[in-house]
Amino acid sequence: MSETLVRVEKPRAHVSLITLNKPERLNSMSFGLVGALYEALEEVGGDNDTWVAVLTGAGRGFCSGLDLDDMGSAPGLEGITRHRAGTRAMAYMGNVVPAMRAIPQPLIAAINGPAYGGGMCLTLGCDIRIAAESAVLVTGYARIALTGDYGISWLLTRLAGTARARELMYFSERVDARRGEQIGLINRVVPDAELRATAFELAKTLAQGPSAALAAIKDNLDKAVTSDFLTSLDHEAENMVKAAGTAEHKEAVRAFVEKRAPKFSEFATRA
């Protein structure tokens, strides 16, 4: 992985920090940066010692979307037609959000400034979004006569509702952090100086929780947005039966009976 473009660190026990690291261009998304992000997600997702992850940007912004001046080239496009190359390139870029959703750990976005277009999509693909007061979200596609990618239509519709999704896509208005919180795009807004501390405190809380159960909860919630009620109910039941047989659940019951805090770290596994 190109450590120049995406850094992976473990600043806290069981917490991985993924940093988009192209600050001179507001962490804009080239094929190289997205490729490095895929590798970071694979690394973090497969790390049994990582129970929660935080995604942020280096410098003064989160991510300014596509780097239209320096895209580089997508892998595996040699010798095919222009149309097919374009389709594959779009799939290569766009599938990074499903890759974020596919890792078993809860993923927290620490939005440290502007998040435009695809950068906004990266925040929406996370499980929890914590924003600095200076953060700004902009869809931006209509401004450059494009239609949206990275799953933004699906994500916006489910997070903000159909009316807001249309408003945000049609008008590409700047959404500051406070308004983002009001319309459901952001979970919490904090002063800029407190962003990382807040994100890490939430990560610490999750990292002290039952990692297998949290992974299954994430799976339940992801399935719920694409399933009917009865299918979702059945899926929850399957995960509930699995969870009931885990050491985490037994420890939680013991802790309840003994009137103490559970020690999940002794049994940390993921389903």
Describe the protein in words.
With 271 residues, this protein is of the alpha/beta class. The chain folds into two domains: 6-207, 2-enoyl-CoA Hydratase, Chain A, domain 1 (Alpha-Beta Complex); 211-267, Lyase 2-enoyl-coa Hydratase, Chain  A, domain 2. The protein has eleven helices and nine strands. The chain has helices spanning 31-45, 82-94, 96-102, 118-124, 152-160, 162-171, 177-182, 195-207, 211-224, 229-244, 247-257, and strands at residues 6-12, 15-20, 52-57, 107-111, 114-116, 128-132, 136-138, 175-176, 188-190. The chain has a six-stranded mixed sheet, sandwiched between helices. Strands 5-7-8 form a three-stranded mixed sheet. β1 and β2 (15-20) form a beta hairpin. α5 (152-160) crosses α6 and α9 (211-224) runs antiparallel to α10 (229-244). The longest helix has 16 residues, at 229-244. The relative contact order is 0.12. The mean pLDDT is 91.
